C-alpha cells in the first residue's frame, strides 16, 4: 500500500467517524433549550444573531438559532464555522470580515449578511470537534476579551446540552447494553453521591450540600454523569438511581450533622416519582428509615419540561410538603421550567439556571435574575443561583436578592470523605 493509499483511507475513516459523531445530534426535534441558550448567548455578547451548528464532512447543519432565518443546511466550506472548528484555541473572532482576505470571499460575507463574527468550537464525547456556537452581525463590531470569555462559558453549556441530545438519540435506536451496565452499577453500589456546597450569600456559610450522582467504576475511574444520567432519565432506572443516591446522601448527612446539626441535603429526584402511585410515600419511607427529619431534606425536581401538573402531581407534592420536605424546582429560568409549577405546586423554592448565571453582567440576564429574586421574595420562596464561577457573579446575585448560591467559585463536587 502506497502512502497515497494510506492517506485516502485515513481521510475516509476520519470522514466516517465525523459522520457517526454528528448524526446523533441531527434527528432530535426537541431543541427548545438550545434555542434558549442561543438567545442568551446573543444577548450576553450584544449581537443580534446566534446559531448552534453541527458540521459533518461536507455540510453545516443549524440545529438552533436566535433571530436569523437562514438555511438549515449549507456547504461547510462557505461558512465561518469551517474555520472556527479548526482553530487551535477553539475560538475565532473577526470584527470586519470584508477587510480580512481569509474570509471576504465567503458568500455570506460578499452579500453583507455576515460582517462580524465570534464563534467557539464544540467538542463531542470522543474529543472530536462536532460543531460551533457562534454570534454574528451584518455590521462591523469591536470584539473584546469579555465577549470571548462569555462565548467560551456558553460553549461549555451547549456541549452539555448536546451530550443529552446525543444520549437521547442513542436511546431511540436502542442502548440495551449501556442500560444493563447502568442497572448493574446501581445494584452494585457503584453510583454514589458527591457533594457541592450551597452557600448563604449573606454569611458565606455552607447551609446545605447538593448530592450529585457519580459513577465510580471498579477501576476507580469516575464516569462523566452526562453519559449515564440521560440514560437513566429515559427509563425506570431513574427511580432506582434516585433512591440509591437518597439513601447514601442521608447516611452521609448523619455524619455531617454531628458537627453541624442544622445542615441540610439537596437531592435531585425525577418528576416521575410524582407521577406514579406511591412515589411520594416511597421517598418518605427511605428518609424515615434513615431516621433523618424530612425538614433536613430538599428534593430538587428534575425533568420538569415533561411534567404535566395534574391532580396526581399536585397531591404528591402536597404529601411531601406535609411530611416537612423542601420541594425545589431545578433549572428555573432556562425555558424548561414553566410558571404553572409556581401556580399549582406547593414548592419551597427554585434554582436559577446556570445559563442565566453565565450571562450575568448583561442587561437581559441581570433583569431576569433580579426579577426571579423579587418573585421569590414576594412568594416567600428560597432562591439558589447555580453555576457561580466568579466573584462578580456572586456579588451581582447577592445584590439582586438571591439568598444562596453554588458553583465552582467555592468548589467542584467532592466525595463525602473530603467533607467528613
UniProtKB/TrEMBL annotation:
Superkingdom of the organism of origin: Bacteria
Ranges of residues in domain EAL: 175-420
InterPro entries: Cyclic-di-GMP_PDE-like, EAL_dom, EAL_sf, GAF-like_dom_sf
UniProt GO molecular function: cyclic-guanylate-specific phosphodiesterase activity
Cross-referenced SMART domains: EAL
PROSITE patterns xref list: EAL
PANTHER family named in the record: CYCLIC DI-GMP PHOSPHODIESTERASE PDEF, SIGNALING PROTEIN YKOW
Protein name as annotated: EAL domain-containing protein
Protein's organism: Antrihabitans cavernicola
The organism's taxonomic lineage, starting at the top: Bacteria, Bacillati, Actinomycetota, Actinomycetes, Mycobacteriales
Amino acid at each position: 500500500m502506497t502512502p497515497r493509499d494510506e492517506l485516502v483511507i485515513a481521510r475516509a475513516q476520519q470522514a466516517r467517524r465525523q459522520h457517526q459523531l454528528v448524526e446523533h445530534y441531527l434527528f432530535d426535534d426537541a431543541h427548545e433549550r438550545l434555542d434558549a441558550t442561543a438567545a442568551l448567548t446573543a444577548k450576553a455578547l450584544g449581537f443580534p444573531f446566534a446559531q448552534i451548528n453541527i458540521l459533518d464532512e461536507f455540510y453545516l447543519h443549524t440545529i438552533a438559532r436566535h433571530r436569523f432565518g437562514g438555511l438549515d443546511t449549507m456547504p461547510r466550506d462557505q461558512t465561518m464555522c469551517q474555520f472556527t472548528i479548526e482553530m487551535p484555541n477553539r475560538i475565532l473572532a473577526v470584527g470586519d470580515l470584508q477587510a480580512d482576505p481569509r474570509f471576504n470571499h465567503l458568500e455570506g460575507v460578499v452579500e453583507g449578511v455576515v460582517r462580524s463574527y465570534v464563534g467557539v468550537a464544540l467538542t463531542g464525547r470522543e474529543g472530536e470537534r462536532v460543531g460551533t456556537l457562534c454570534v454574528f452581525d451584518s455590521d462591523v463590531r469591536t470584539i473584546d476579551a469579555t465577549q470571548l470569555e462569555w462565548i467560551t462559558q456558553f460553549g461549555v453549556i451547549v456541549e452539555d446540552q448536546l451530550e443529552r441530545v446525543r444520549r437521547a438519540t442513542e436511546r431511540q435506536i436502542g442502548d440495551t447494553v449501556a442500560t444493563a451496565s447502568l442497572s448493574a452499577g446501581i445494584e452494585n453500589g457503584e453510583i454514589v453521591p458527591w457533594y457541592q456546597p450551597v452557600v448563604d450569600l449573606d454569611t458565606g456559610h455552607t447551609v446545605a450540600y447538593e448530592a450529585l450522582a457519580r459513577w465510580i467504576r471498579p477501576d476507580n475511574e469516575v464516569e462523566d454523569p452526562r453519559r449515564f444520567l440521560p440514560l437513566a432519565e429515559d427509563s425506570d432506572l431513574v427511580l432506582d438511581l434516585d433512591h440509591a443516591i437518597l439513601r447514601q446522601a442521608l447516611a452521609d448527612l448523619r455524619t455531617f450533622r454531628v458537627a453541624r446539626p442544622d445542615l441540610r441535603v439537596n437531592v435531585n429526584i425525577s418528576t416521575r416519582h410524582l407521577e406514579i402511585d406511591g412515589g411520594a410515600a416511597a421517598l418518605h419511607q427511605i428518609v424515615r428509615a434513615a431516621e433523618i427529619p424530612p425538614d433536613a431534606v430538599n428534593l430538587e425536581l428534575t425533568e420538569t419540561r415533561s411534567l404535566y401538573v395534574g391532580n396526581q402531581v399536585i397531591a404528591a407534592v402536597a404529601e411531601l410538603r406535609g411530611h416537612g420536605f423542601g420541594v425545589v424546582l431545578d433549572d428555573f429560568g432556562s425555558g424548561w421550567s414553566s410558571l404553572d409549577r409556581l401556580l399549582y405546586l406547593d414548592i419551597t423554592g427554585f434554582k436559577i439556571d446556570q445559563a442565566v448565571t453565565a450571562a450575568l453582567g448583561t442587561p437581559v440576564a441581570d433583569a431576569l435574575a433580579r426579577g426571579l429574586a423579587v418573585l421569590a421574595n414576594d412568594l416567600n420562596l428560597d432562591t439558589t443561583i447555580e453555576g457561580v464561577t466568579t466573584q462578580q457573579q456572586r456579588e451581582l446575585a447577592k445584590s439582586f436578592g438571591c439568598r444562596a448560591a453554588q458553583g465552582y467559585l467555592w468548589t467542584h463536587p467532592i466525595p463525602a470523605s473530603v467533607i467528613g
